[in-house]
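Exercise: predict the fold of this chain.
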Amino acid sequence: MNLSFIQPPQVAWASGALADGPLLRKSTRIQDLTDVFADENARQQLAGEQVVYDVEMLDTSPAEGELYTGVTHLYPGRVGCEYFMTRGHFHARREQGEVYFGLRGTGLLLLQTEQGNARLEKVFAGSVHIIPGFTAHRLINTGEEVLSALAVWPGIAGHDYAALARGFRIRVFEENNRVQAKEVQNG
């Protein structure tokens, strides 16, 4: 019997770089994040082309039963006093969950239910985050280096950004050289 061996895609755990697979890459810039940060005037003062985060993912079918695998690389920085963060989203198919694995850097994962209940989880190299269905999620980089997290989610999940048009209930700022979380009324 002649067996053939397939080289699967790989992730470099220390950097989060994906390799040996068909990859898709997307960069999200300051100019793409209108009305995401609390201080819109401070956001407008930054260079619009500045990359806030990159996502690279394996090119996978969105069919039932398939899984997407991707890595978010969220850069350090702030808009005013608020830390750089991803846009955040619910899944279009709300019942679909997701798993994040912290690879490098330090930050927070903001989770919020449809009822508005919110919580924060610390993200660091080796952390594992089970994001249940019906839960919006956003990464926040509170450190001085790139925050990278590997994510695995169902191909059918989709993204719903519009459901968070008013934002999340919690904002994370730096005040007095410390990370501070505040509940806001607009979320």
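Check your answer against the key: The chain has one domain: 10-183.
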